[in-house]
Amino acid sequence: MRLLATAALMAGLATSALAQTPPPVTVEGLDRGLTNLGLMAGHAIQCLPEAEKPQAQRALLAFNSILIAEMGANAAFRFATAYGAGSSHEPDRQFCERSLADWRKLIQDHNLNR
């Protein structure tokens, strides 16, 4: 749970390169992180070629299952609703490369590419 919570927090918090200590983990920070992670995932999926979307959707379901198991249904719901918001409109193509890199890191970090 700690790895997943940290990933969600870091996705939501923009920290300065000069910061010496990480910010404390808070409920609000985790919520913001899950929201930002869901928005990023929704944007990344929109940027994928059509042929890759079914596999990405399976990975999303697997990640949401991890959230339910480790952080509860409220966390999974927050991620899922943010994903829906992120995937509900045409993506901004200038940010696709970044979103796809973040998405692929999430897939690799949580071994969702099975």
Structure, described:
- With 114 residues, this protein is mainly α.
- It has one domain (26-109).
- Helices cover 69% and strands 0% of the residues.
- The protein is globular and about 40 Å long.
- The two termini are 20 Å apart.
Rg, rounded, reads 14 Å
How many beta strands in the DSSP annotation? 0
Stretches with pLDDT under 50, minimum 5 residues: 13-17
Strand content: under 5%
The computed structural class is mainly alpha
Order of helices and strands: HHHHH
Keywords: Signal
Signal peptide: 1-19
Organism: Neoroseomonas lacus
Protein name: UrcA family protein
Key attributes of the depicted protein:
114 residues; mainly alpha
Summarize the structure.
The protein is built from five helices and no strands.
Topology:
Layout: H1 2-12, H2 27-47, H3 53-71, H4 73-86, H5 96-109
Helix pairs in contact: 1-2, 2-4, 2-5, 3-4
